[in-house]
TrEMBL record:
Region (Disordered): 90-129
Cited PROSITE patterns: PEPTIDASE_A1
Source organism of the structure: Plakobranchus ocellatus
InterPro entries named among the record's database cross-references: Aspartic_peptidase_A1 (IPR001461), PEPTIDASE_A1 (IPR033121), Peptidase_aspartic_dom_sf (IPR021109)
Record family assignment: Belongs to the peptidase A1 family.
Keywords, in A-Z order: Hydrolase, Protease
Protein name per the record: Cathepsin d (Lysosomal aspartyl protease)
Domain of life: Eukaryota
Sequence ranges assigned to domain Peptidase A1 in this UniProt record: 149-468
GO biological process: proteolysis
One Gene Ontology MF term: aspartic-type endopeptidase activity
Length: 479
């Protein structure tokens, strides 16, 4: 039988194991084409191979040079090459008889070094840290005028604090950088990230750019330690914004905390939520949102990482599967207005959850018909807005979104926005009319006006979203 040639290989499936010291880990393993011959290696080859790999692997684990591990002049490489060739080529009869009657080869002497002591900072860690298990974490959110919800995080070592708005329709995280040009000045209350002050900062050779509220941001990607709700996320990738940071002057928050699943070519590394899961900081790939009303009594707005918190909802969840791989998008079955016959948009429509907007946005013709039934006044502009007589708001009917045969109703307190200006109050609808291009499929934007009424569960493990009654809302209604 011919010896295997250099190019005579097969590609097997992905390899997830770690390689020995000095080897390069690749996606595929190369093996001899004749697998049966590999399995016929004689006992001597297996013994030599095992005795060679044991000290090498031990040296790799305790991070010492392999040359210090094997204290012998014996040449394992040459023996392995000879026994490998012998296992593939049949020996002459004379050689076989000599092999059987020859003296046994003595075992090589191998000396393993003792494992070095742990560094002092690791040996002094409390036992609760060394044996801690992933648990569900609550992140407190601040409600800014029912328009945006933001949390406080720390970046770097030592930590630098930032207020980041949570966005379920945006994947990345970004903060303004201290290295911005002089002509881009931030307002005094905005914090800026200084990578030179962090011991755990790592640069990435990639430029960062993104659109935020129709304006272009630019900068570069970086890595650092992120701390939020007691979780320490190592090597978190985020954008350092150095171009157009002055657009933040009118904003109460510093940057963005993206919670959308990452798509192809999005971000230069794992999202915050992905990193939390991969570093085994959370028990499940689930997060949930409770969004309170501005100036309302009750619990604080909360982002729950790793599961749900029953303190913020009651009853059972109604679930619906996701209809897009990298979005929190699902299908609704229509809209019904209380005390009115028929269903608006009865063929159903696609919808995406977006905490970055306080509105609910849909096709203009459908939203026009809905507000005509509510007695609202339409206003020109993009997006199209609608106003109500404030004296009639309390008597407006509920607007229900149909999901899995159930109506999830919104009261007038949920879908009417009151605006106070110059001592006057105006009442606007949280539902807005939008236009899509002819070749585009309309996808409704379901913003915080809807999620204030319903505790929302984002379940990536089962590719679904779920809604339960928030503590301050009315129950579901059968359709």
């Amino acid at each position: 039988m011919a010896s295997p040639q250099l190019g005579d290989v097969r590609l097997l499936g992905p390899s997830t194991g770690h390689c020995a010291s000095g080897w390069t880990q690749t996606r595929y393993r190369r093996v001899p084409a004749d697998l049966e011959d590999c399995l016929k290696m004689n006992l001597l080859s297996v013994t030599v191979l095992a005795l060679t790999l044991i000290p090498v692997c031990a040296a790799h684990v305790i991070n010492i040079p392999v040359s210090q591990t094997i204290k012998t002049s014996w040449n394992p490489t040459g023996i392995l090459r000879q026994t490998w060739k012998a296992s593939l080529e049949p020996l002459p009869q004379s050689a076989r008889s000599q092999t059987r009657s020859g003296p046994k080869r003595s075992k090589p002497s191998v000396q393993l070094l003792s494992r070095p002591a742990l560094p002092s900072e690791l040996s002094q860690r409390p036992s609760s840290d060394r044996f801690s298990r992933p648990i569900i974490r609550d992140v407190k959110l601040t409600n800014y005028n029912n328009e945006i919800y933001y949390c406080t995080i720390e970046l770097g070592t030592p930590g630098q604090k930032f207020d980041l708005a949570i966005h379920t329709s945006y994947p990345a995280m970004w903060v303004p950088s201290v290295h911005s040009p002089d002509d881009y000045s931030l307002s005094h209350f905005h914090r800026r990230y200084n990578n030179a002050s962090s011991r755990t900062y790592q640069p990435k050779v990639k430029m960062f750019n993104a659109f935020f509220e129709t304006r272009l941001l630019g900068g570069y990607w970086s890595q650092d330690t992120l701390t939020v709700a007691g979780l320490e996320v190592k090597n978190q990738t985020f954008g350092e914004v150095i171009v157009e940071p002055n657009m933040l002057e009118d904003m109460i928050f510093d940057g963005i905390f993206g919670l959308k699943p990452r798509g192809v070519a999005e971000c230069a590394g794992p999202t915050v939520f992905e990193n939390m899961v991969w570093q085994q900081l959370l028990p499940d790939r689930v997060f949930s949102l409770f969004l309170n009303r501005y100036y309302a009594d009750g619990p604080e707005s909360t982002l729950t990482l790793g599961g749900t918190n029953p303190d913020y909802y009651s009853g059972e969840f109604v679930y619906t599967p996701l209809t897009a791989p990298n979005r929190w998008q699902f299908k609704m079955e229509g809209i019904r207005i209380a005390n009115h016959d028929g269903v608006i948009n009865s063929t159903g429509f696609q919808a995406e959850l977006d905490t970055g907007t306080p509105f609910i946005q849909g096709p203009r013709k459908v939203v026009d018909a809905l507000h005509s039934m509510l007695g609202a006044k339409a206003h020109q502009g993009w997006p199209r807005t609608y106003s109500f007589d404030c004296s009639e708001v309390d008597s407006l009917p509920d607007v229900g979104f149909i999901l899995n045969g159930l109506i999830l109703p919104l009261t007038s307190k949920d879908y009417v926005i009151k605006e106070y200006k110059d001592g006057q109050v105006s009442c606007y609808s949280a539902l807005q009319g939008m236009n899509w291009r002819k070749h585009e499929t309309p996808v409704w934007v379901i913003g915080s006006a809807f999620m204030r009424a319903y505790y929302t569960k984002f379940d990536k493990d089962r590719s679904r979203v779920g809604f339960a009654k928030a503590k301050h809302t009315i129950p579901f209604i059968p359709s």
